[in-house]
Structure to design on (213 residues):
């Protein structure tokens, strides 16, 4: 999930999980935090000055063990502190108090001083020089059940009054760059299940050759 002001590519912050051999030197899944701000400066995690680690329990970057807890489920929240203007990242815990991981100081951004005009959630992949695009999510197209492919659930956004609203309460735009290799399916289920999943969507796919932009 990321926050962005005025749809500007130089003002954004985001947490999540990814596989990045160029950054970590292996094929494991890692948690991460990324930011871009003034003068195009920015980086992953704490590779440059910017992100302030606060939690002594949960680091911004660490290998993510899919075998512990509920496989593949992460619960993150990003919000701007009303008093300081800093952007906090919090991990929402299921059976324990939420943990503030750390924050990006407002001073490192040029367009995120007073909230964001756009938030986004989803998956991104990068093709190799040979033109091979890697799998996204768990590698399955979202053509089956709700948990057969990658999924985002219970997506909520804070409005200008800091009130939580379902993401589809706002104008939304669906982006799918390559329907040849990846898919996107907005979830629709019986009302009983909505209390559990909230607003959700499935995404991902196997990747392949010549997947396009």
């Amino acid at each position: 999930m990321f926050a962005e002001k005025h749809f500007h590519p130089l003002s954004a912050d985001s947490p999540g999980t990814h596989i990045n051999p160029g950054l970590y030197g292996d094929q494991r899944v890692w948690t991460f935090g990324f930011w871009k701000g003034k003068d195009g400066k920015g980086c992953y995690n704490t590779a440059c000055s910017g992100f302030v680690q606060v939690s002594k329990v949960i680091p911004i970057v660490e290998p993510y063990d899919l075998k512990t807890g509920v496989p593949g489920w992460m619960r993150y929240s990003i919000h701007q502190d009303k008093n300081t203007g800093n952007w906090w990242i919090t991990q929402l815990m299921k059976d324990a108090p939420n943990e503030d991981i750390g924050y990006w100081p407002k001073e490192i951004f040029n367009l995120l001083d007073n909230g964001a005009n756009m938030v986004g959630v989803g998956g991104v992949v990068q093709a190799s020089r040979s033109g091979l695009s890697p799998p996204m999510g768990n590698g399955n197209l979202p053509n089956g059940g709700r948990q057969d492919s990658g999924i985002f659930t219970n997506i909520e956004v804070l409005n200008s009054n800091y009130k939580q609203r379902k993401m589809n309460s706002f104008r939304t735009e669906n982006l799918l760059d390559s329907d040849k290799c990846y898919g996107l399916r907005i979830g629709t289920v019986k009302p009983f299940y909505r209390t559990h999943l909230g607003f959700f969507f499935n995404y991902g796919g196997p990747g392949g050759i010549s997947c396009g932009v």
